Structure prediction request, 1221 residues.
Amino acid sequence: MSENTLIGKPEIRVDAWPKVTGQAEYVADFSLEDVHFGYIVRSPHPHASIRRIDPFKTLQMEGVLDVITIEDVPGEKMVGDIIPDRPVLAWEKVRLVGEPIAIVVAISKHIAEQGGKAVEVEYQPLVPVFDPVQALEEGAPRVHASGNLVSHIEVQDGDTQAGFQQADMILEETFHVPRIYPGYLEPEAAQAQWNPDGSLTVWVSSQKPFHDRHLICQALALPEEKVIVRVATVGGAFGGKEDSSLAILAALAAWKTKTTVRLVNTREESLLAHPKRHSGQVHYKAGFKKDGTLVAMQITSYLDTGAYASYGPAVGQLHSEVLGGPYKVPNVRVDTYVVYTNSPIAGAMRGFGAPQANFGTESLMDIAAGKLGIHPIELRRKNIWRPGDRSYTRVRINQAESLQLSLDVAEKEYWRLKNIPPAPGKVSGVGLSLSVQTMGLGYRVPDDSAHALEWLPDGRVRLYLGAPELGQGLMTVAAQITADALGLSLNQIEIALLDTSQVPDGGVSCASRMTYSVGNAAMTASRQLIQALIKEAARLLDIEPALLHYEKGHIIRQDRPDLAPIPASEITSRLAENGQILKRQAVFSFPYGPETPDHLPIGMPHVLFCFGAHVIRVEVDVELGTVEPKEIVAIHDVGKIINRATLEGQVEGAISMGLGYALLEEMKLKPDGTWVDNLTEYLLPTIMDMPPVIKVIFLEVPEESGPHGAKGIGEMGLTPVASAVANAIYDATGVRVKAIPIRPEMIIKEK
Amino acid sequence: MSSTTPLLTGKSKNDKIRKTLGKVIHMQSFDYFAPRTMTELHQLLHATAGKIIAGGTDMLPQIRNTKQSPSLLIDISHIPDLRYIQENKEEVLIGALTTWSELLESPLIQKTAPALTQAAAMVGAPMTRNRGTLGGNLGNASPAADSLPPLLTLDAMVHLTSQNGQRQVPLHEFLAGPGKTTLKADECIRQISYKKVNPPFGSVFMKLGARQGMTISIASVSVLLTLDINGKIALARIALGAVAPTAVRCPDAETFLLGKEPSTALWQEAAFQTRKAITPIDDVRGTREYRYHVASILTRRALESAYTLLQE
Amino acid sequence: MQLIQVSLKVNGKKYQLETPPNRTLLEVLREDLRLTAAKDGCSSGECGACTVLMDGKAVNSCLVLIGSADGHSIETVEGLHKTGAPHPLQKAFVEKGAVQCGFCTPGVLMAAKALLDQNPDPDEEQIRMALAGNLCRCTGYTKIIEAVQEAAKELHHE
Prediction:
């Protein structure tokens, strides 16, 4: 288009200045005038019946406004993101440590907490179950009356029995992946205000304000127009803030007490009670021919969804689709079991089942390579999808050539890193992994992103961005694409507060598709807005629209080239004088063409893939078993770089999360029977845990349905890290780890 | 120290003073006094059951998670007499309120107790080092406290003060168990001292944590070596942390080293001998077996390193 | 309930406060003085989101009892602007893309300022050590390091 395009420029983030000056407001920063505080009474037991809840003593305390229990919920008592299996507040049973039972609302947090401690709850502890395989056995404690199996996802293609018969070598391996905490720096928070007209205004730190509104309305039996959800500055999300529970509780408390109530989780509450990444055990049986051709795979996976399903069934689906990796597997059978236990809830978290699959699959490829005497890079090259190939979900692979490209680039980096000698006293190893991540919510799951633009009287354009900025840079990318489409500069774009009564539903900020969906909607809306401007200009000038031409915020008359271009503000301000506004809205629906395979359940398959490769060099202290990442090269095909700085930021951040997954993090039961619930024990990577060198290489193989060819990046940078680390450790020490987080004891033990 | 009407409401006599809304308080209630002199401190300790708080980096998290529920906190951070690093002919004297940062930046400590300097560099993060005090590290008596192995190798003395007078107790007698000391209810740690070791000596501190930054020790070791004119070991002190109810010296390993000719095999055997002095446990950071293993490896490496320093 | 009197200087301005003693400097800054840049990320000194400077040294304000802060001088992010001009650290963080969700940013800025005030020309290792107590989940720290290096260069030229 024009040489002044904004696409590809590393524009400064539009939300950066308020954040470095301290002006950006997160929910807990709001004014304290007339705000009451809620304290949530939570279960100390992982599994128990509730005999009695008695708030009598608390209600007598000075400063306490109310104690809210399930009886105060006027509407749906059970909610859920996919399955409505979760009580708004527990009443007959608790299923995890930290489950909310009551909310004490008081004039101060201190009093609310004192009040909370005085609420008497009588429990009858029940035997808990914490392992998903055990939970499926005969006689296991029932977490829900319906049984512990949430869903069983089956995917089949070809004939695995015949496939294994063709194999020259058959491998069987089991891998374990841990429960992970999203670890955003801002703990969950919500503030709800009851308005005199009976409506509620709810401020959230959330990825899905429209769905929050829906669930709040369900629980409070209120029509949609009575609940307004507004998104504050969000301090990180990573999937963990796709959970509406705190917003519902704040709304309930405000509605019941007819005041403003703020709920802010402590870090402990966040660690215990808020959704995590599914832990799992994945059993692989894979058959290869002598020459490395993968002929069959049979995979059984158990994902622990904890006490409530949350997004478990959907995580299980995506997981099942990528368990075969980015490889041609003619004969496949996948069985994924999503299982209830009394562990902390698992739900959406960055990668959504793909990291759990990647660890096993990419480790397995290296194990197979070793057994076959073929280099791990060659083995992958032999089996990766080529253009024209289909996955075992029968989806035609987009940009399959990215895989070959990624591998070629990765190979060069691999040999470069192999030539680096280790520091004295250490051994060095290099590992490589391919990454496959899907985009979108899955076939037949509504996946629309609506986007509105308004041309303001002063010539600036206001974006009604209906999907939240989480820190990932969505506002900036949306503004950049819009400004570029309109030929304006970035500072002529203004972004409206995300208020569900003012902006259209832009979709949930997740699934690596915000740039894609929002970008597409913004481009369409921009085109429509320009057409509308031309039409209005024509009307005002009383000439044919065909004689007008739009360029960079101005209308130019083809018939009068001698006249100066008319700035858009002249038109919009004239309209404003007449009480008219110039606004257009467009909706982008995630595209599923007629050829989309429809033999799988709703939510499957995903049809757009993102590819990449990671190469990691580690140094291992073989006596202590400690592992230090020294250099990480991340290669990712993004289709088209819109903003390099935000893209790099996403990959670098995802890498740190991936290193935490590989080496440090685990939400687990301690020897004393309590859950890890603080940051001294749940170890997030510090700046000193990052490798000295991180190299990010972007490939641009355009996706024609993407805005300027762009695809997604949000999750891809995380997915291959753990397997690449494991492969590097093997290269360095000959020790193959089959569980993460990788502990020094694992490396020493095997020696 | 005033006490007036309850928070949240109430009018102040002095309009310049901001009244707090007090809405977001997270902590249990306690009374608070901040003595400005040693005399005031002694009186408070004598007359009340108050708990001492200095930097607060250990105490406040414990109050928050109700591991501790003091009804009265005595904040000694405003007593200037307790913050110093001094020396006389024989000893180095460290005031109890000396922070980790002050230890880290002190040339005197670097010269006379380099292992303590190394420990200071690896404790927590800058923010904890700027507030955490040496007295607090001793008083909190975590089995993993990083100041303890270096101080044990220096045979440090803990100086305690109360209204009844002063007393000194060797550090190893001061430490009684995980989180326990022999501090009396009316006492406060005033100072930590150690006798200077005549150079040349080699002294090293090493620790292993689960991550590279801001990490609690899975195991830690401090060693101090000197050689006689024949090059044989004259002085050998080895102390280990995080592998027993308190940080401990390893008398068997030390005795074994005395008078011997340094060699790789010697360090290896001494490291093995440390097993007798320690009783590590399983916890969220590591298993018992791994701790035995790490203690041995770190001891050997520390001895090697200390010996190398002696040769420079 | 006991109340104590506390005087402190914050960003150059003197304050006299009357408060219950069971509060931290973080709570007082955020609630009484409405300086909400410093954040509560963990209330236990493990994340650094509450970092402010006390007499020029970086501290976790969630672990400073308000009584302990009596008589001391505090600097927060709100004081980084000098008569309209942003501090080179703020500028560098914006320009280098070192800000994503922004929640860790105020704490990181103050820890970085403490470093640069003491050591105007730090190497990368020193920058890492200075920020070891500030957790960030979004950026992976890479651009944070670049921003501090950029700010150091600019401060050199002033």
